[in-house]
Amino acid sequence: MIGSQLVMRYRLAVAVVCSFGVAACDDDTTVTPPPPDLAVQADLSTPPSPLLARFAVIGDFGVDTLDEVAIAKLVKGWRPDYIVTVGDNNYPNGETATIDLNIGQYFHDYIGGYNGTYGAGSGATNRFWPSLGNHDWYSTSGAAPYLAYFPSLPGNRRYYDVAIGPVHFFSIDSDAHEPDGIDATSVQALWLKDRLAASTECFNVVYFHHPAYSSGDPQFTEPRMRWPFAAWGADVVLMGHQHQYERLVVDKLTYVVDGLGGALNRFDFATTQPGSMVRYKDDFGALYAEVYDGKMLFSFRNSRDVPIDGFELTRDCSAAHVDGGI
Question: Looking at domain 50-308, what is its CATH homologous superfamily?
Fold first, then answer.
């Protein structure tokens, strides 16, 4: 089998989840098992070694509230090598006056070229890899405060890619203000197609703000972002905007909505969409990932560091990325 082989592994049995209230088990937030063709027995053995890197993914977080404090403490307690964001870094309106308060106060030591007031940054080595959300575009000057705040981002900084060890990250701007477009034939999309084709890393991780698929309120889902990611070589797609956690498998590719970074409120689910595996909205949280040779382990954890969901990606790193490889 060429490319990535997706393996779903439950860290928690559904009965345990429901009994201990880790995830709600009503009609809206039931933790459901994967289809038989994707399901495997849970493997609780010690992860393979050596651990190459660990990283965190946060979304919808930049509000300077006690909830953001809790998630920042959670994430930094994992001691990640770097942090990825899926947008809405600077509420409410993406202004210069609030950006350091909302981001630098908590994550300055990860930001390359940091010029804020909360201490030392990460020097010349950037370890904070954000993507633009709609709130980051709301300032009177558009995304200018965001772009000025992150001088170490490559490319045009609205969308870019960076390879870190065996993982190649692709940050996409899913907001309608993006001048290079957000549909599958846009300048931005064709850039991603070309960059994915050129990638030689083991794993290709695509991330952006507005979810292509979601069981949340349809007004917060962006169908224009339903690009052929798997065919282009992506191994997983990470998203935000919906203030929920959800994992879906669509056309054999895993999509994760990770919008519980602390922003003001949590959203109810609407109609459960095809491919939805796990849905959670009971607490804020973040996504934790470990990188090994040929394997990535993901775990969504709530603000109390309780695991809510876990899944694994494995692939032969010598194989080309073709049609998602599944």
Answer: Metallo-dependent phosphatases (3.60.21.10)
**Can you tell me the distance from the alpha carbon of 74 to that of 283, in angstroms, rounded to the nearest whole number?**
13
**Contact 71/303 with Cβ under 8 angstroms?**
yes
Question: Which amino acid makes up residue 103?
Answer: I
Question: 152 or 45: which carries more pLDDT confidence?
Answer: 152
Please tell me the distance from the alpha carbon of residue 323 to that of residue 140, in angstroms, as a whole number: 41
Residue with tokens 């796990």, as numbered in its chain: 278
CA distance 70 to 311: 24
User: In the chain, what are the domain boundaries?
Assistant: 50-308
The residues, any chain, with a CB within 8 Å of residue 272's CB and separated by 6 or more, are: 28, 215, 279
Per-residue pLDDT at 45: 57
Can you give the length of the chain in residues? 326
pLDDT tens digit sequence for 4-34: 433 333 333 332 233 233 443 333 444 444 4
- C-alpha–C-alpha distance, residues 209 and 143, integer Å: 14
What is the Cα–Cα distance from 322 to 326, expressed in whole angstroms? 9
Q: CA 264 to CA 241: how far, in whole Å? A: 12
Tell me the per-residue pLDDT of 236-274, one tens digit each, with 9 for 90 and over: 999 999 999 999 999 999 999 999 999 989 989 999 999
Prediction pTM value: 0.87
| Residue 221 structure tokens | 């889902």
Show the beta-strand stretches assigned E in the chain. Answer: 4-7, 53-58, 82-85, 128-129, 160-164, 167-171, 203-207, 236-239, 245-250, 253-258, 276-280, 285-292, 295-302, 307-315
Within 13 A of 326's CA, how many CA atoms are on the CB side? 23
